[in-house]
Structure formats: structure tokens, C-alpha cells
Amino acid sequence: MRLSVERLRWGLLAGALLLIAVLVVLLSYGRYRAVQAWKQILARSGATITHETDGFTYSQALGKKQIFTLHAKHAIPHGQGKYTLQDGMLELYGPNGQITDRISGAQFEYDEKQGVARAVGEVDMEIEPPAALKPGANSKGKAAASQPIHVRTSGLTYVKKLDVAATDQDVEIDYAGMHGHARGAEFDSGQDVVHLLADVRVDGTLRGRPATLTAAKADLDRDAFQVSLTAPVLRSDGRTGSAGAAVLHIRKDGSLERIEASGRVKIQQETRTITAASLRAAMNERSQMKSAELAGGVALVDTNAERPMNGTAKAARVAFDDAGFATSAVLDGAVGMSMEDRMPGHPTLERKMGATDKVTLTMERVARPGGRTGGTSVSAVHAEGGAWANGDAVVQGAAGKASGLKKTSVAADDLRLTLADVAGKSEPQMLSGTGHTRIEEQTPDGTVETSTGDSLEARFAQQAGQGVERRGLEIASAEQTGNVRIRSLPGKAGELPSEGVAEKASLDGASNVLTLTGRPRLTQGDTSVTADTIRMMQQTGDAVADGSVAGTFVSANAKPGEPVTHALAAEAVLHKAAQTMELKGTDATPARMWQGASQVEAANLLLDRGKDEMQAWPASATGVVRSVFASAGKPGAKDKNASKVVRVTSARLNYSGAAHQAVFTGGVTAQAEDGTAQAQLGVAFLTPAEPPTAARRGNTSAAKGQPDALASSLERIVMSHGVKVEQPGRVGTGDELLYTAATGDFVLTGTPGHPPHIADDKQGSITGHTLLFHSPDSTIVVEGALPGAPGSQRVHTETTIKK
Prior knowledge:
Blueprint (H helix, E strand, L loop, with lengths): L4 H4 L3 H32 L9 E10 L2 E15 L2 E12 L5 E13 L4 E12 L21 E6 L2 E3 L4 E12 L2 E11 L4 E4 L3 E7 L2 E7 L1 E5 L4 E5 L2 E4 L2 E4 L2 E6 L5 E14 L2 E12 L5 E7 L2 E5 L6 E5 L1 E6 L5 E7 L2 E7 L7 E7 L2 E10 L5 E24 L5 E21 L2 E18 L5 E13 L14 E15 L8 E11 L4 E5 L3 E4 L2 E4 L2 E5 L5 E11 L11 E11 L4 E5 L6 E5 L2 E5 L1 E5 L4 E5 L7 E7 L12 E13 L4 E12 L2 E5 L1 E8 L4 H4 L15 E16 L2 E11 L4 E5 L7 E4 L3 E4 L2 E5 L4 E5 L12 E5 L3
Antiparallel strand pairs: 1-2, 2-3, 3-4, 4-5, 5-6, 5-7, 6-8, 7-8, 8-9, 9-10, 9-11, 10-13, 11-12, 12-15, 13-14, 14-17, 15-16, 16-18, 17-18, 18-19, 19-20, 19-21, 20-23, 21-22, 22-25, 23-24, 24-27, 25-26, 26-28, 27-28, 28-29, 29-30, 30-31, 31-32, 32-33, 33-34, 33-35, 34-37, 35-36, 36-38, ...
């Protein structure tokens, strides 16, 4: 998330409030000194003028300390306590005996009986500024010359009974390039308060920038050392600050101590606006901002066409360094910040961040070309208590064109984001989180992936530089640890959801591969795999499990209550789109899959869910595939549920769930308790397992899973090409063999050129068209004469073989 002081504009407060303070202090102070001086003329006019005098001079001192001197070109008495002074000048002296202030006017009138003094025409004043506003020493250690405050007004009247001096005329003040104005002023001597009655305005410069302050009225309370402004508005350098009211607290040396503003405080610059119900700011001895507090609901709105932004909080606290630059900002209560990145012809990218409790921004000074300081930028964000962050990233499709947006959201009890200034913008570098961390990504196809854990650390891809297309918030790498759980809900119909658990999950953003370690387990649909390491390909949904792989899954036609199928392998590969699963091992340590007594093991096992097929093959020409199939119990047996098994060894196995057939090629050996048979080719016919009781009562729903070869019961096996059957004491050969699992019978057939043949230790050699080995009673049934033999007829022979 790009965040900077230039965007948040907390730094606006420093310049705006400082300018308000300085200009209002000047305006109020100048008026105060002027009225105080006028009051002194009247209060100390103890001399009585009895005749017209030219070149009149009157002075008063307290001991040896000179207080003021009054000069007048003409002093004219009018009788009855009325006087006129023409071309008068009042000089006030400071503690060092030097003249500090001068007040002059064309004519002053005084009515001693009424206690009213009035200036006729304009009054000009030169007043020494407060100590805090005087220039300091220069580079050579010498103090710079101080400029006086110039004040002009007219119609100034003092009423002794009310102890108030006032004018309803304009008051003009000039100091150090600043010009102040007010319409009407009043000085209450009893309360020691100066009131600027209306249309208060100050124009000037602050740090080389034009500035204007306006207010409906202003009041200076010298006893309380504070200035109160009504509806102040400050405009400077494209910035505007306003409030319903503001109070400036001043130190005795005239410097600004603190500011209090209320009534919809608003600060604006270009498209940015900050509002709050109230503001409190503390200033240092140089009247520079030390800290500021915004309260009562703080809002930031930026209507920039390319990067609109919004921010809200219940309160905000900003700290500044000695140079007046912001160093930190703490946003309290229901904090939320959002920004959109808009580029013509490209998708709009959105970024958000916030917290329930608070968000702390850390700022640092930023250098610009030429070695000059360009301001401050946010270097870190700390969100506490229900912290969250959201961001969009462009997903690249064919030919590098955007195919949509991937939305990423992060949440935790505590989130920390570090940023760096890149080409004048604050770019995210790393995000870390602790406590109930959660990452959620939603891809354009609607797939939603969620990851939870105890802690999180993510680094973002850098896309700085001119001409680089903005792709949004992209994660270069991420690591989540502690009770990690990952869930994926596919957006496409028919795809299976998946879930992974581990102690640690690591994401490589470049390859988009998520690696699970620490007892990881991956579940896709009805398939569950554990291994030493599991790698998930987020772009394709494929997964690779390495080391001590153990899997469990449900057969495609499984019924509720049936046992699950298990697998062991050195490696497992799950292909999401193809709906296949590869189990890999070696010829010495093959992959193995089993359910109950049925099993298959080989160096390579491939299960195809979509086609309901399975394949097995070895790693070398000398390797084999070993299969074990369970069959139903023999008819008439005491335990009808007792099963028997047939073990088959072959060079390759291909199973089709649609045909319920397992095809063995490359040389086959089938071993049962009734005997052993060998051939070049074998086909096992399987019957789906009998549904359990619950299914027969109507619960016939089947879970979609892996091929059901191991969930089925062996019905029969047909073997061909070079068949050889072995039982204790006899060996049979032929071209084709049918083995029926339920009865244990072997039916051996041949061709006219190679008829079936049995060599028995007791009975010798037996040949016929068909030879039936009846295992339960160890009989052999020979049926049919050999084709082409003289007197061909049906032959039926039964031979009992002793076991």
C-alpha cells in the first residue's frame, strides 16, 4: 500500500497552524501595543495646558527611568477642560532606556470633563515586536536588525468611564513583509483584552510562500496570554486550513505555546481534505509544531483522478521533529485507509489497510535531487488490534495482457508494513503479522484460497521505474508459520475443493509455488496426502508430495461405510486439471496402494479420476507390478463373508473402472490358494463390492474419488498365451485359462495344434479339448475329443487326485 505524508497530509497541520499563530499574534500584539500607548497618554496627562504652545514636549519618568515623551507642534486649550494637540508624537521607552515605540497623528482631542480622548484623522505607530519574533544572530554571531511593527488606524476614541479604547475604522498592520487588516477594534482596559471586531485579514509570506489569514473576529487576552479567533481560514502555498473557532496560547515572550481549534476543523490542499471535530497542537519555543491531536472523528478524502484516497479514524496524534517535520502519526479507533490506482486503459487497483484499535505511521526525511530535503514519507505502518490490509494485482493472461484482477487480503492481531521511498513514492517492502494471521486470495475465475496461521512474513515485488506498467500489490515471497491451514474453493463447477495443513507454508511469488513443511497434509476432494514436503502449484492447482508419502482416498463407486484406500510412496503428484494422481517409488521400494486385503504395488502408479482408470508399471525392465485381489467367499462355505485372495505379478497393469477389468501384460503370474498360473497376458474381471446395509436401505450416494479396483471383488481371471498352471503334484499347460474365484475352478483350453495338457504325478498325462481343475474336491474333468480324431465323440472323464 502506497502511503506518504504527501498523500496523508498530516504535515499540512504544521505549516497551517504555525502561520495562523504567527500572523494573529502579530496583528493582535500590534494593536495591543498601540492602544496601550494611547491609554498611557491619557492616563499620564497630569499637566494642564492653559495656553496655545508651539513646540510642546511633555515627559514622564518613574525615578530615573524614562517612561514616555509626548511631542506636539501645537498645543491648544479650548477651555472647560478641552484640548487639542496638533502633529503629536508619543515615544515609549523600554527597560534599557531606548525608545521602543512611536505613535503619531495629525490631531488629538481630549475632553477632560467627559473623560473622552479622540484621534482626529490617521494614527501611525511603530512598535517593537515581541522577543520571540526578533531575528537571531547571523552566521558571524551578530544579531540582525529588528524591524518594527507598523500600525495605522483612524477614529480612535478612548472613554475613561468605560476604560475602553475603540475605533470602527480600518486598522492596518505591517511587519516583515506581512500586512494585516481589521475593521474596527476595541481595547478593554479593565479586562486587558483587545478585540478585532470584524474582517480580520493578514497577507504575507511564510518560509518564502505567500499566505493569507482571515477571521470573522479576533480577541487577545493579555492576562491569559491567548488569542481567540472566530471562523479562521488560512491559505498558504495551495493549502487552506479552517475551523469554527481557534484559541492560540502565547508564552510571555510572545512565542506560540499551543493551539486549540474546534468546530469542523478542515485542512485542504489541491484534491486532499482532512476534517476533524477538534484540534490540539503544542509548539516549541520557536513557535514550531511539536505535536498535534485531531479528535472527534478524523477523515481524509483525496479526489485525485488517478489516485483517489479515503481515510478515517476516531482520533489522530502527530509528532514532529525540531525542524517541524512529522516523525510519526498514531490513528486511534476504527482506523481505515483506502486508495485506488487508476491508469487509463488498465484495471483500477485498490489498496486498503486498517485496524480496530490503532495504526501507527512512522515517517522519515526524504532527500531529493540536488541534496535538498523534499519532505517526509511513511517508512513503516503498524496496525494493532484486528488489523487488516487488502490489495489488487493484475493477472497476466495470453500475450502478457491483463486477464483480470487477483484480490489479496491479509488480517492479523498485529500487522507491520515497511515501505521505502522509490522515485518519490512510498512502495511496500515487507509485511509481517502475528496472532491469528489470515491470507485470502480471489482469482479472476472465482477461486478463493484462504491461509491461516500464527505468524506471517511477506515481501513484495518491486516495480519501480519509469515506463513500468503498474501491476498492483504482488507478493515476491511469503512465509506463514504455526498451525497453518490452507483452503481452496474452486470457482469452476465440477472442480474439487482442497485443504492443506502444516507447521509452515512458504510461497515463491516468481514461480507461484506454495511449499508446506512440518507434518504437512493435503486434501483434495476425497484424497488426502501426507509427506515430508508438499509443493502446491497455485497457478494450476497441481501438487507434488515428497518423502514418506502416505495417502488415503475413497473409490469412485464407494458406498457409505466402506473402508478407504491407503497408499504409500516416495513421491506423489496430483494433477488438478487432468484429475490424475501419480505415486512414485523404486523397484526396490515400490509405491503401494491397498484396501483391506487388496493391494497394488509398483515403482509407478497412475490413478485417473476423470477416466476412472489406473496404471502401474516398474522403473526398469527387471521390475514388476504386484497386485493382490480379494474375492468373495466360496458358495456353501460356513462363513459366506470369508474372502480369499489372488496375488498377481506382471510387467504392467491397466485398470478400467468402466469395464471393471484389470489387464496384466508383459508376463503374468497369478497365485491363489487353489494354485498358480502363468501366461503372457491376463485379464481380471471385478465385481463392485456389495453395498452395505445402509446403502440397501436407500442411502446409495457414492463419493466421487479414485478408481475402484481395490474396492471391487475379484470375479474371474482369464489368462492367455503360454499358459501354465501348477497345483501340488500336477502341472497343466494350454493357450487360455479361466480362473473363477468363487469356486476356485481352473478351466484350461488350447488349440488343435496345442491342446491343453496336464502332467500329474499319480495319473500321468491327460489331454482333452477342455480341462477343468475342480479345486474343492481336487478332481479334473476332461471334456470333448480332440478335433480330427477318428470316431470323434463327447468324452467326459473325472479323475480324483489325492492331495
